[in-house]
Design brief:
two-stranded parallel ribbon, mainly alpha, 3-stranded mixed β-sheet, globular, 47% helix, 5 strands, 4% strand, 16 helices
Length: 339
């Protein structure tokens, strides 16, 4: 295995791919002295420079477009840096953090109101409560929490993000922003990022409440084998069994498996179906290809659903390094490949 696809990944021109391979596949300590030069290479890489190219302009106070605009707002800039292995503790990211965390801890997220219909739920700003459940897109606060924790730039407002997520958690353990009163089951899309954000916070701060919330959220996925309905065992959504990179806020089986790796549950027997599905998608050259993508590329102009960089596109036959390194990390952590 090391002489095949892993060797290819270790020779990648992308320092983040080499870092992910070393850390997530081969098990190197990400904080070791040996990893420092590689992380510094990530800091100055062409990909990181492109992602940060509008940091000054978007760091100014302004509209929501500058924070959450898909996929070029500052929210996604932080998320990308966290995933790429950008060095932790960089104070130059504080202005971006302040805009992102400040946005997601705005007083509106503390204003709650009871709504009985979908129309009522959209009539005012704040968090509607319907049938006793908070209808909130918690992936937003969850992703921000995960980003600042991973990048080592959290401050006292990080605690506020945690408090909001715990406050909004549904009885079944997840989160959902569906404003149909009849919605009673948590959303995979709205649950996996809060789960990871709270897991990172719990690890760093030994917070039992956050740790319990992670355990409850994990059952949302594990009880459904990461992609199947409990009732009939059928696939919940077609996109759940298609591979993507980046995921942004979208869930698929690879995102689910990597989430289980992060929270230490990928060897749970209920992950077996998802792992087998991932193995079935392997290409003859040992890598994996993304089935679909959620982005287009627009490096200089902000365009809806565009990213600053190309993440390798899609191909039925050509390995994508970003998907491949995550797939190998999941299988290695589950004990299904030897390195």
């Amino acid at each position: 295995m090391r002489d095949g696809v892993i060797s290819t990944l270790l020779k990648s021109t992308e320092p983040s791919i080499r870092w992910k391979t070393q850390v997530h596949v081969l098990g190197e300590n990400p904080r070791s002295r040996a990893m420092r030069p590689l992380r510094e290479e990530i800091r100055t890489s062409a990909r990181v420079r492109a992602i940060l190219s509008r940091r000054t302009q978007l760091g100014r106070a302004g509209t929501a477009r500058q924070v959450y605009y898909k996929w070029q707002g500052l929210h996604w800039v932080l998320a990308s840096l966290a995933d790429l292995g950008y060095p932790a503790g960089d104070e130059s990211l504080f202005p971006i953090r302040d805009r992102v965390v400040g946005f997601w801890t705005d007083p509106n997220y503390f204003h709650e109101f009871v709504a009985k219909t979908k129309a009522e739920a959209y009539r005012q700003r704040g968090v509607p409560v319907m049938e006793g459940r908070y209808r909130r897109c918690a992936s937003q606060q969850g992703n921000a929490l995960r980003s600042v924790m991973t990048l080592g730039i959290g401050d006292e407002r990080t605690d506020v993000l945690v408090e909001r997520l715990l406050h909004w958690q549904w009885p079944d353990g997840g989160w959902n922003c569906d404003r149909k009163p009849s919605a009673h089951t948590s959303s995979f899309n709205e649950t996996w990022l809060p789960m990871l954000g709270l897991a990172a916070y719990a690890r760093e701060n030994k917070h039992p409440g956050a740790a319990r919330a992670v355990e409850r959220a994990a059952e949302i996925f594990l009880s459904r084998r990461l992609f199947k309905r409990i009732s009939a065992g059928s696939v919940i959504q077609p996109d759940f069994v298609a591979l993507h990179y980046p995921h942004y806020w979208h869930y698929d089986v690879l995102a689910g498996l990597m989430a289980m790796v992060e929270i230490g549950k990928v060897r749970d027997r209920r992950c077996a179906d998802a792992l087998e599905l991932l193995e079935e998608k392997r290409l003859p050259d040992g890598g994996w290809a993304p089935d679909r993508r959620y982005y287009k590329v627009s490096p200089k102009v902000m365009v809806s659903n565009a990213d600053y960089v190309d993440w390798g596109g899609t191909s039925r036959s050509r390995m994508n390094e970003w998907v491949t390194v995550d797939a190998l990390a999941a299988l290695q952590s589950a004990g299904r490949v030897r390195v």
